[in-house]
Design goal:
The protein is built from ten helices and three strands, in the order E-H-E-H-E-H-H-H-H-H-H-H-H. The chain is mainly alpha-helical.
Amino acid sequence: MLSGPSFAEEIIKNNPTAVVVASENHDAAVLIQKTLSNKYYRVYTQQDVIGVEIAGALKNVYALGAGIVEGFGYGYNTKTAIIARGSKEIQTFAIHYGGLPHTIFGLAGIGDLMLTAYGECSRNRTFGYRLAKGESTETILKSSKGVVEGLPTLQVVYEYAQEHKIFMPILEVIYGLVKGTVTKDEAVEKLMNRELEAEFSFAQI
């Protein structure tokens, strides 16, 4: 699987880009790495296919949230908090499925999440931004130039996390904001006034 922070239109312009190819077959991954790598396109290898797949899917969900935060008028403090703590929730979900925690700190994880959450080309960030500005889901999707992958992913992951009791408070709030069951003020209340906790437990380090 090939993943990582890469807008196609920037690749075409030969903007230096780094991605990762994940395969349980190391030799296959190396073959793809050597075939695709060039002066402007650098490919790394790794074997955590599950982690890369989950990171690639869930980064779209948190990009929705980043767009919503931006649309609400909050600044970089808030947006970065969503991204950083969102990456922790992606890690939690990946580990649940057998993915490796360090994958989420790499190109397929925080790398792709940052690109999708901050990039103006991001359909998911743009959807969240427009939604927060008051446009309806139907209106945004009709005018979108591509698929907003985060929406169906959000639905599936929310339902799975609820069923299996996976703690993902930011995802839950994003779901409520997208569905219209949570207001801006309620979202802040739910996330900022939860019980205080350590950033990491010793078992996670």
